[in-house]
Structure formats: structure tokens, C-alpha cells
Amino acid sequence: MAKMKKAAATKASDSGKGRASMRPPAGGKPASAKAGAGAKEEAGSGKRKLGLRGAAPWAARHAAKHAAEARARAAEPPLPGSARATIRTPDNAEDIKQNVRELHAALAQIKALRKSLPKTFYDIGIVLKDIQARRLYEAKRFPSFEAFVEREIDLGKTTSLKLVRIASLFLKEGALEVGMDRLFAAIQAIDSGGDTELARIPPPPPSTTALPLRPPGR
Q: What share of the chain is helix, strand, coil (3-state, %, to 5)?
């Protein structure tokens, strides 16, 4: 009888251990149940498979379509006044670049001639006259030649315009002989239209060249 009670107790202990080993984990559901639920959720959500680098297959087609549309828009001429029309390269871009280079070269030449103004004023007037005739100042967005010389030429607006007048009205040899100051006074008298201004112009300096002497006995 005692042996039968002992065998029954051992059997009950073994069945308890088996039931303990079949207990679910702390989450409340077995691992197999979780795996099955995850598979059902993935199948039910309908997620798309990702392509290379984690991008969806439709992303490449979408990007290619937008690139083709952008190329087509760029090939079409822009509408007048549109924002795209203001950022397109102008048709005469090369001419503008060439005018800018020539204008910078002319400014450098004027700066070098400026160091000896009483002797080179006529040459400066020639350079300024060329800038005015070819409208090179427009390459730097100046609305007029007067605005250009006022901002870019350190001689000043009035002097620069007078030098252009001298280069237009006088020959170089005669202008250098008379001198810059007297030419400025002459231009002022011409513009005022009065003879009183001409009377104030000082006479040219006497010539220092010695005249040849007549030989004696003649």
C-alpha cells in the first residue's frame, strides 16, 4: 500500500513539471503563436518589397519620368516675364563677356595714363571717346556714359566729359601745344557762347626756339 502511494505521488510530481514546462512566456503568448501572428499581419498589410538600397521599385520610374519632364520644359522657350526667362543665359553672352574684357582693359589704360595727366590728357580723351562710341559701359549695366564716368573714372564727370570734347574737336598736336587748362577754358567759353570768356584765356607761352641769325655782310 505504501508503495502504491509513493508511485502515485511520483507520477503527480512528474505531471506538474510537464505542465510547468508548457507555460507560455512572459508576454502572454507562446513564441510559435507570435510567429504565426506576425506572418498573418505581414500578409494582411500588403507591404511592397523594397528594391536596391531600400527604395521601392516605383521610385526609379517616378524619378525618370520627372527628369524627362524637366528636360522637356528646359528645351521650350520661356514665356516673357517668367522667372525662368530671367535666369537663362542670354543669346549674346559671348559678346557681353568680350565687352567686359575690353572695358576693363580700357580702364586699366586710363589708370596708367592718369599718372601724367598734363601730357596724356588727350590720350585719355581718346579712350573715353571709344568707350562712349561703342557703348562699352552697358556691359557693366550703366544706363548712360555720364553715370559710368561718374562712378568708374576718378577724374570726375566734368573733367571726363571735357576730355571727350577735346578729343572730338581738336587734333592731338594742337591740343598738346595749347595745354589742357586752356582747352578747358575754351570749351567753357564755347558752351557759354560769350566772348568775355575768350578774353580771359591766357595767351600761349612764348616759343623758346631760337631763330637762326642772318650771316654778317648780307
A: 70, 0, 30
